[in-house]
Amino acid sequence: MTTRLPDLECDALTKRFGAATAVDDVSFTVPAGSFFSILGPSGCGKTTIMRMIAGFLEPTSGDIRIKGRSVLDVPPNKRPVNMVFQHLALFPMMNIADNIGYGLRRKGMAKPEIARKVDEALDRIGLPGIGARRVEELSGGQKQRVAIARCMVLEPDVLLLDEPLGALDLKLREHMKVELKALQAAFDTTFVYITHDQSEALVMSDNIAVMNEGRFEQMGTARDLYYRPQTAFVAGFVGDANRWQGRVIRAAGEALEIKTDSGLMLRAASPGRTLAVGDRAEVFVRPEAIRLAEDAAQLSHFDTQISGHVATILFNGAASRVIVTDPSGAEIGVTLPQSGEFAHLTRGAPVHVGWSGDQGNAFSATGR
Amino acid sequence: MRAGQKLGLILLLTPLLLWLSLLIIIPHIDLFLLSLRERVGVRQYETGLANYTTILTEPLYMITFARTAMMSILATLLTLLIAFPVSYYIAKMARGRARSVLFLMCLVPFWVSELVRTFGWMILLRESGVISGLLQWAGLAAGPVEMLYNDAAMMVGLVYTSMLFMVVPLVTTLDSLDDAVIEAGYDLGGSGPSILREIVIPHAMPGIVSGSIVVFMLSLGNYLTPTMLGGKDSLWFTQMIYSQFIVRFNWELGAAFGFMLLILSSLIVWAVLRLTGQTLEKTMG
Fold this sequence. Notes:
The structure holds two protein chains of two kinds. Chain A is α+β, with helices and mostly antiparallel strands. Chain A has eight helices and 20 strands. Chain A has helices spanning 46-54, 96-106, 111-124, 140-152, 170-187, 198-204, 222-227, 232-237, and strands at 8-17, 20-30, 35-39, 61-66, 69-70, 81-84, 158-162, 190-195, 207-212, 215-220, 242-252, 255-260, 265-269, 280-285, 291-293, 304-314, 321-325, 331-335, 350-355, 360-364. Chain A starts with 7 loop residues before the first strand and ends with a strand. The two termini of chain B are 31 Å apart.
């Protein structure tokens, strides 16, 4: 059996606008049938990558291969990739059926064939019989699905999605995340998805690349990025984290003891990175990795233990947070367990927090 | 409070109502009554349609009438053809400063009076003018070339005069077309011409229609350009109205001419709106 060629390969892709480098030597491979996300803050260059793959921008250097064939000299209307635009860009002057059939008409397909394929696509996205409606009559989620169907009837090798959920309200966005993943499985097509919303990327993707300032910081599965961030940027960007600057006091292999600038003593680990005593370090600890207790004895098995007071309670349902200040004034965000145990917690109450050293991620503060 | 609001509304509407009634409605009523008067003797008048039958039975009047309509339509089409790429460039391709500069350049000629602008064309096109001189200097013409006083010169003048009124609505509508929609067209396999036909033009239709209506009416009612640039064969209907009122002192026939022009322009605008499936509210609002 020969191995299936990857659907999309980008090789040392670089794009410069004048003196500014938007995309800097980015390489990645997307295997066939997978869901790949590029996650990054706005302005990190992710849209530039997408526009280069779609063919609207020409890379300064590097290569883009689709199914092993370079597409650099192929114009956008001939590339086997299609794109779902940020604001969907449905054609307001056409009805839904004409929108979906547009690409097929351009291919010169016969009319009855187009009608059949359009009906099929409408069935597939769960909106049969809306072909004659106008674009503005549809709801946000329906437009979303039509925009995907409009691309999928062309059976592209790769479907690009440029933050398509950005315009939807929260509830619908949550719903569409699941739906998109299901559509991807149903169409069995490679999706390349760009977003600044980490939860979209984490929920849907097989693989995620975290991008910052034109470079890929880390590429891996959602779990990899969350549990084993390789750079300080990834640790800070993916998931929530308490972030402290400090200096390494003691180092035993990868286990470190760090004194933060605010005077907090804590333990952390630096898997795969070497930090020596005296180095400046940046430490990330996830609020959900920190245990909250009213009795210090409950935390005796943790190697980092801090006592303090409740400064604020940020109630947000399951994502509720307590901000604890230690006597030095340093703030620690802790996830509030929803088991009812802390339901009576009030501002100013004395509490203890603790975590085990391997939950803290330390990075060299200078060598980023 | 309510009464105060009402007074405010009346005060605000007064200039508009005055303008409409004094300059548009009253003159038209007067013209209409005038056009129905037929002279039977010295200072003796009867009411009838004689003026209109004169127009319909006199070939010169009807030919000029039809010619003016056809030439105005042609001028509108030419203006649209030239203005569309210009507007597309301004709205979709030019960025930032270049954009406002280009837009201003379309506007600048209108700071000069129409008379001076038309005179500019005369300087260029006349026998002893710039272009004729250039042709002779380059050896392309043996003697002076007269390019004025024909239909082509008149058409140039008409298109030039109306350009801005086509560019402004076109730029506005093209501007409202999301770039992503055009890109989506390319992305889904569309070629330049097909995107123009299926996406850009349908979107720009209200602008095209409103621009065309304005340009058509301006051309139809233009007096200066046909008079200055057109030749003896390029009789324009407005010139006939002028000659009836001022030269022949036949106000009755002149008024009938004026009404024919009003009916013609209304009919053609209505036909264009029906043909393109647009409504007046959509194109003018």
